[in-house]
Amino acid sequence: MDETMNHVIESLNSRGVTIDDLAELVMFLQIKYVPDLSEADCKAALLRVLSKREVQYCVLTAIALDKCAYNHTMDDPIIESIIDSDAPLYGLDEVVAYAICNLYGSIALTNFGYIDKVKPGIIAKLNDANHNNVCNTFLDDIAGALAAAAAASIAHDYQKD
Ligand code: MG
After folding, report:
1. How far is the CA of 36 from the centre of ligand 1 (A)?
2. What range does the domain containing 116 cover?
């Protein structure tokens, strides 16, 4: 595992998102289509996704923006307040998530939309924690996108033709 990937996983952990949490989401998304899917398969897919440099940069950027908004260290007070309050029309938190999903095609995008609506597991926890001594505006979408991309990666491996 390279240094940046380690840093990404540690950054996610420091924000309350573990590989176990994400593997649970992958299982939730993909078990219907791959009946013998194991937790180890889900974790391996997540590590494949997290090994991509584009994904790593999305995760780190998302976490940095959430932290800056929460700590009031942004130069622009308006955008800081928009991110910190998770303004419904902001939408760039989803756009960063799409940047991850786009690397894994339409299955990742539809998975992301589904997870964003249903909010299973860690996604609900991140949402509930938002505004409560933390800003998870970007993080909830990033967590959903990582799981959606990993599930898509499993789908593509499983269905070779
Ligand atoms: Mg969000």
Report:
1. 32
2. 3-158
3-class state of residue 68 by DSSP: helix
The pTM (predicted TM-score) of the whole model is: 0.95
CA 139 to ligand 1 centroid distance, Å = 7
Ligand 1 centroid to Cα of residue 92, in Å, is 8
Cα(68) to ligand 1 centroid in Å equals: 15
Q: What is the pLDDT of residue 160?
A: 64
Distance 161 CA to ligand 1 centre (A): 35
Share of the chain above pLDDT 90, in %: 91
Q: How many domains does the chain have?
A: 1
Distance 148 CA to ligand 1 centre (A): 15
> For the segment 76-128, what is each residue's pLDDT rounded down to a tens digit?
999 999 999 999 999 999 999 999 999 999 999 999 999 999 999 999 999 88
Q: Are 131 and 47 in contact (CB under 8 A)?
A: no
What CATH number is given to the structural domain containing 84? 1.10.3760.10
Q: Which of 63, 59, 23, 18 is nearest to 153 (CA)?
A: 23
